[in-house]
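Researcher: Please translate sequence to structure tokens.
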Amino acid sequence: MRIERFVVPPLGNNVYLVVDADTNEALVVDSALGSGPLLGKARELGATIKFILNTHGHPDHTADNAAIQKATGAKIAIFEVDAVRLEKNARESRWYLPSPPDPSKADILLKEGSEIRIGGIPFVTLHTPGHTEGSASFYAPSQGILFSGDTLFAGSCGRTDVAGGSPARMIVSLRRLAALPPETRVLPGHGPETTIGAETWIADVAYPII
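Model: Translation complete:
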């Protein structure tokens, strides 16, 4: 499996292109505004983008859903609780994105345990609320990879003082992720890569998280 990371301004979002080496089937994890380089890399690799996985519905993670879907025909997948946020993006994003995104709509409503596959690689949906009600992480156990969105960062976690956020639910989600194998690579929505084993601070987290 090949993973290409693109860091996208203005909020430093990580956008991931994930390609199965055997079939060249690919998926995108989150779609911050500015998909040109990602689409160019996919063409360079001869990859066919089948899915766009949104870790949650905030506009900085979904703004280019429509653009990538238009270019590739990929299906948009998001946890069912956060799907409604896609419809609010144009209004909410005017505060912090250079231009409002084109509207998008979920093709696949994910639930706990839902699987998305490229080639022979399954990506398992883990419901990890706390940043939003429908935040999800995507775990590829065969590869030892976790895409954690705005739930787990290197040394910290996503904000819980936003609409739909919950300190208590964030703690539960973090402790759930901490139970994964320590060698699991964590690819977050912002900031550098880490591993589950490196995030020992989670064991000491207590109420409340601000």
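Researcher: Any highlights?
Model: The longest helix spans residues 167-178.
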